[in-house]
């Protein structure tokens, strides 16, 4: 397996594992509610509330498993870019994040008049998750953190900027930010791959990922040309 494939697979496994933990935490709650239903159903006065709990719990489980299935879906073998509207990946990101119990707020501004872009959906989701996970890690000690995904139509495609309320990139790593294994956070064999892999995937789709200073990263996606 080529080095590129190894790095992408390793980072994807780490990103998926972190995201799955959000979903598992929320899956556990409705399962606990459902496990109490047989005992409560024998109490007539509790029937309406039990029905409501069953409905809400079932809907939450279905939603979580739907997101989990989508998250674990592998990209096409060839990974050939195709026309993609951005609402789908952004909606997926927002729905997954809603399961994350964090004081850090996520806002998405989709702008107007966005063209279809040249992309692979699973690669774009991978990039978004990397950016959001990095933004969360940068604000781990804050109770008023925020992340903002802002999209704007450009003459040649779409610019997606990720801003957050963290301290920004440390001066010591700014020049090597997109090199593999460069990190100021957790240690470990898979640390420091996120931005390198995100830029690799962006470039393979005909786009680019850059640091604009502070805590802002900009992802340019090329417009689809039929």
Q: What pattern of helices and strands is seen along the backbone? A: HHEHEEHEEHEE
Kindly name the structural category.
alpha+beta
Strand element count = 7
Give the helix proportion (percent range).
40-55%
User: What gross morphology would you assign?
Assistant: globular
Q: Which range does the strand content fall in?
A: 15-25%
CA radius of gyration is: 20 Å
The strand order across the widest sheet is 2-4-5-7-6
Most strands sheet: 5 strands, mixed
The overall pLDDT, averaged over residues, is: 85
* Alpha-carbon distance between the two ends: 33 Å
Q: Which residues sit in consecutive blocks of at least 5 with pLDDT less than 50?
A: none
Quaternary state, please? Answer: single chain
Number of helices: 5
Short description:
With 226 residues, the protein is α+β, with helices and mostly antiparallel strands.
Describe the structure.
With 226 residues, the protein is of the alpha+beta class. Helix content is 46%, strand content 18%. The protein has helices at residues 3-40, 47-72, 87-97, 121-138, 194-204, and strands at residues 82-84, 105-109, 117-119, 146-154, 157-164, 208-213, 216-222. The strands form 2 sheets. Strands 2-4-5-7-6 form a 5-stranded mixed sheet, covered by helices on one side. A two-stranded antiparallel ribbon has the order 1-3. Helix 1 (3-40) crosses helix 4, helix 3 (87-97) crosses helix 4 (121-138) and helix 4 packs antiparallel against helix 5 (194-204). The model has no long low-confidence stretch (mean pLDDT 85).
């Amino acid at each position: 397996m080529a080095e590129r494939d190894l790095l992408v697979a390793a980072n994807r496994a780490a990103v998926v594992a972190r995201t799955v933990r959000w979903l598992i935490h929320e899956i556990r709650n409705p399962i606990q509610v459902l496990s109490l239903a047989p005992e409560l159903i024998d109490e007539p006065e509790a029937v309406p509330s039990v029905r409501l709990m069953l409905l809400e719990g079932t809907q939450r489980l279905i939603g979580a498993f739907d997101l989990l299935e989508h998250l674990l879906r592998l990209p096409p073998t060839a990974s050939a870019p195709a026309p993609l509207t951005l609402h789908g990946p952004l909606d997926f990101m927002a729905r997954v994040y809603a399961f994350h119990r964090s004081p850090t707020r996520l806002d998405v501004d989709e702008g107007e008049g966005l063209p279809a872009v040249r992309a692979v959906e699973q690669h774009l989701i991978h990039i978004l998750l990397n950016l959001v996970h990095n933004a969360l890690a940068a604000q781990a000690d804050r109770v008023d953190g925020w992340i903002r995904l802002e999209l704007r139509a450009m003459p040649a495609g779409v610019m997606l900027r990720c801003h957050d309320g963290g301290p920004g990139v440390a001066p010591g790593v700014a020049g090597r930010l997109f090199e593999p294994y460069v990190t100021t956070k957790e240690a470990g064999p898979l640390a420091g791959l996120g931005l390198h892999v995100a830029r690799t995937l962006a470039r393979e789709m005909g786009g680019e990922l850059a640091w604009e200073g502070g805590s802002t990263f900009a992802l340019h996606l090329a417009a689809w040309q039929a």
